[in-house]
Amino acid sequence: MPHPAVTRPGGSGNRLLAALLPPDFALLAPELEPVALDQDAILARAGDEVEHVFFPHSGAISLMIDMANGQTVATAAIGCEGGVGILSALGPSPSAITAIVHAAGTASRIPASRFRAAFNRSPALRHALQAHLSAMLTQFQLGAACNALHPVQVRMARWLLHLSDHIDHDVLPLTQEALSQILGVRRTTVTPLMRNLRASGAIRSDRRGQIEIDRSRLAAVACECHETMRLKVDGSASTNTARSRFLAVGDDERVSLGALVARSGKDPVTAHPTSVGK
Ligand SMILES: [Zn+2]
Questions:
Q1: Does 155 fall in a domain?
Q2: Which of 7, 115, 150, 191 is most buried per CB count within 10 Å?
Q3: pLDDT tens track for 9-61
């Protein structure tokens, strides 16, 4: 049975981990722990030292900047294509962001110190992270431009699309309060914008923190930044996968992922995942 952290056809998994060849994955596997990502759980808090690195299998996490006056704004969304806390590979340091689960899911997590040790031993792991960080940097840069140049209405549509990219249905478990924190605007600003999106058909309903979207209509409203960012993220994941295939050794030389799981003694993520607190 493949390690639950690795993508399986038709199943969940983390694409960053799945792109690693078995010898590199083996550096992480014994320490990977399955966890549930509960709605609104905080995986990292700005100012606190990063304790764990999370590799989502499903769900969506927003990276938030907390300003001194209490305002917040989201800078990026991460799902199964990446990881949360991976900059801790460079050395122990306080987190610059607060990472909040905005669509529940599952993940594998590893202590930051163990991740750092593997990072220092594996050029392939470093390469995979570089490609992912390059895509993240594009998100940050485009996000800064978008925040400065594009109206909040189209930014709202962009964020709803970002988050929906990481779930397999059209209902986002988001309150208007959460949306206001993501967009860095007042709650009272969100209400008329939601009304506009409902009138256009881009949002079918918005009740009790459940926003049902129409993806194609929402895409028509959103700025081009969503598609540009999505292509960059998908491109980095494909680059990692292609590199792994290029470097792949013969089947008889491969380390069995099932054997790695057996050695790690970890249960599949669906068995009894630890719940991450809020
Ligand atoms: Zn934009």
A1: no
A2: 115
A3: 334 489 999 989 999 999 999 999 999 999 999 999 999 999 999 999 999 99
Q: At 128, which amino acid appears? A: A
Q: What is the CATH number of the domain that holds 43?
A: 2.60.120.10
Q: What is the pTM of this model?
A: 0.82
C-beta of residue 106 within 8 angstroms of C-beta of residue 37: yes
Residue 205 CA, ligand 1 centroid: distance in Å: 24
Count how many domains the chain has: 1
Q: What DSSP letter does each residue of 156-196 carry, written as one string?
A: HHHHHHHHHTTSSSSEE---HHHHHHHHTS-HHHHHHHHHH
Which residue range(s) make up the domain with 49?
1-122+250-278
The residue length of the chain stands at: 278
Query: Residue 74 Cα, ligand 1 centroid: separation in angstroms?
Result: 13
Question: How far, in Å, from the CA of 218 to the mean position of ligand 1?
Answer: 13
